Amino acid sequence: MKTLTRFLNASFAENTHTHTQTNLEAGLENGIYEIIENETLENRVLENLNLSGSLITYTTFKSVTFKSCVFFGSKIENCTFINCTFIDCKFSFSHVDYCDFRACSFNSMVWDFSPMAKCAFSFCALDTHTAYFSEKEGNSLASCYASVAIEDEGAVAGDEKTYNVLQVLFNKFKIA
Q1: What is the pTM of this model?
Q2: Edge-to-edge strands of the sheet including 90-92?
Q3: What pLDDT tens digit does each residue of the chain (176 aa) get?
Q4: Which of helix, strand or coil describes residue 167?
Q5: Cβ atoms of residues 168 and 150 within 8 Å
Q6: What are the phi and psi torsion angles at 70 (to 5°)?
Q7: Torsion angle in degrees (nearest 10) through CA of 41, 43, 49, 53
Q8: Contact 10/30 with Cβ under 8 angstroms?
Q9: How far apart are CA 126 and CA 79, in angstroms?
Q10: What sign for the dihedral angle of Cα 154, 156, 159, 161?
């Protein structure tokens, strides 16, 4: 699994000609990119990326796919995600606060002890777990819909299944 610093070093090296391989290796050793602030990342596929322990603030992600990424002990705040896709990502002991998700898709997500607070979701496709946790902590949802049909949620037990069924019954979500 790649680390955040490896990805960003390579990303910055692609975008500027001033970074050399020696500079990239020094950046890896020093961990200088574990804090991401005021950046814009567009049209990327981030697969098997380890974003553990990272602080990501005031950053905009446009058309970025996060596939099988791990967010362990990370803090993501005041970020904007536009047309992004999250597939099989794991958020554990992380905080997602004051983020704006527009036209994003969430599939097969794991949210272990990772609160989302005061986030806005608009025109998003939400899987069962994301839908369940996005209704807490003062988050807002507008024109969001379930990314899987309710009939296919046999494996989902307890409160989350009941909650999602109620959401559909009360027209909170549309079935995709």
Answers
A1: 0.70
A2: 2-3, 49-50, 70-72, 90-92, 110-112
A3: 444 545 555 554 454 333 333 443 444 444 444 889 999 999 999 999 888 899 999 999 999 999 999 999 999 999 999 999 999 999 999 999 999 999 999 999 999 999 999 999 999 999 988 988 888 889 999 999 887 654 444 455 554 554 555 455 455 555 54
A4: helix
A5: yes
A6: -115, 125
A7: 20
A8: no
A9: 18
A10: negative
CB 9 within 8 A of CB 34: no
Q: Which residue has the tokens 């490896």?
A: 6
Domain boundaries of the chain, sorted by first residue: 1-33, 38-175
Tokens of 19: 């970074």
Q: Which CATH architecture has domain 38-175?
A: 3 Solenoid (2.160)
HEC profile of 47-95: ECEECCCCEEECCEEEEEEEECCEEECCEEECCEEECCEEECCEEECCE
Torsion of CA 175, 136, 116, 131, to 10 degrees: -10
